Amino acid sequence: MYKKILVPLDISRTDTRILEHIRPLARFTGAKIILVHVADGFSARLQSQLDLSDSEEVLNDRKSLEAAVAMLRAEGFSVHGHLLKGDPVSAILSLAEEEGCDLIAMATHGHNHLADWFFGSVADGLRHRTGIPILMVSARIYPPALKKTDDPL
Question: Which of 134, 84, 125 is nearest to 104 (CA)?
Fold first, then answer.
């Protein structure tokens, strides 16, 4: 079914949520996992033009990405990591096409529509610009007593 699953990480607690869902899927299908983090801060976006060295943020992002790769490898997964810089949507889509990914799996923060409009939404940008199937998992975790009533799970 799936051979290559691209998993965009934002180097936050939401990463744990998507990796919980991807492990059994990748194990079942034998898919290779491709982790990607796109550094999109000012210095990351202009690093090559201004001939800047990696910022502390980029160095920390690289460390976190490498730790996630090492953890999944230790669990027996075939996994590679990519640290990219620039516009997250464009970078993710370029990598997905370059790697021949057949699924993009990501955690979503669950902003409201106003926040998505103001801040932009990587998930929204991806779903409008690709034909690759996208698995979106909410990063919100509701305790059973506080679960939304309209939540189907």
Answer: 134
pLDDT at 58: 76
Reported pTM: 0.80
Give the integer Cα–Cα distance in Å for 56 and 130: 32
Domains in the chain, please, with CATH? 4-146 (3.40.50.620)
User: How confident is residue 67, by pLDDT bands cut at 50, 70 and 90?
Assistant: very high
3-state secondary structure of 84: strand
- Residues 6 or more apart in contact with residue 33 via CB below 8 angstroms: 5, 7, 22, 26, 72, 77, 78, 79, 80
Q: Measured between alpha carbons, how far is residue 116 from residues 75, 76, 95 in Å?
A: 35, 36, 23
In the sheet where 103-108 sits, what is the strand order?
A: 79-85, 32-39, 4-8, 103-108, 134-138
The two structure tokens encoding residue 79: 């996994």
